[in-house]
Amino acid sequence: MLAALLAGGPLSAGTVAAQLIERGTFRIWVDGTEVGSEQFTIQRQGTGDALTTEARSIVSMRDGRRLETFLEVVGPQLTLVRYAAVETGPDTMSLTLSRTGDRLRTRTTTDWGLKVRGYRARPGTFVLDEWVAHHYFVLGGLAGEESAGRRLYVFSRVSAGIEPVEVAASAPESIELGGERIEATRIDFGSGEGAGSVWFDGSGRLVRVSLPGRGFVAERSI
Hints:
Strand content: over 45%
Number of helices: 2
Number of strands: 15
Low-confidence stretches: none
Order of helices and strands: HHEEEEEEEEEEEEEEE
Strand order of the largest sheet: 8-7-6-5-4-3-2-1-15-14-13-12-11-10-9
Structural class: mainly beta
Distance between the termini: 34 Å
Mean pLDDT: 92
């Protein structure tokens, strides 16, 4: 099932063609050194509460590590339904996350064995996984004064659990992207070592992710 999700899930098999929303590439830096890239696609099908959004990516690191991901969210609130990730390289890891009612269940298989965990599925629970820039597209609807102070709940395959993160602020900002100046909206979130910022351009595309505490920067290739 994990291989099927990564290769192409329900949208690909449905009778109604899915709409491609975004496709692109991020360049990835850690501590100022370019370390890899991410290719991703986001597609949607349906409307209203029946809206299904699926996102897939392949992250290729220069040290030989590779991560493939699949994310499924539903409705206008982007409610988390499923997530899958397979990491290969010096170490291997596969993870699946699925939702049943108000519970999330994860199965993680590594070289050291199998771990199964359960979590409460709170409203505003999102996957923001390590190395993966495109996951931050879910923050695109949080621009505006009314979103400041909103609490989100974040899952990552490398975290000990689902962690609360507060949206700090959003503001317009001119940034340089690919040698050009563009107008963007910056959204700040978290605090201390967990703080980060994302930028969306005028068409709503996620173009930059910065996580200073991890030395991580991802920038959209034009």
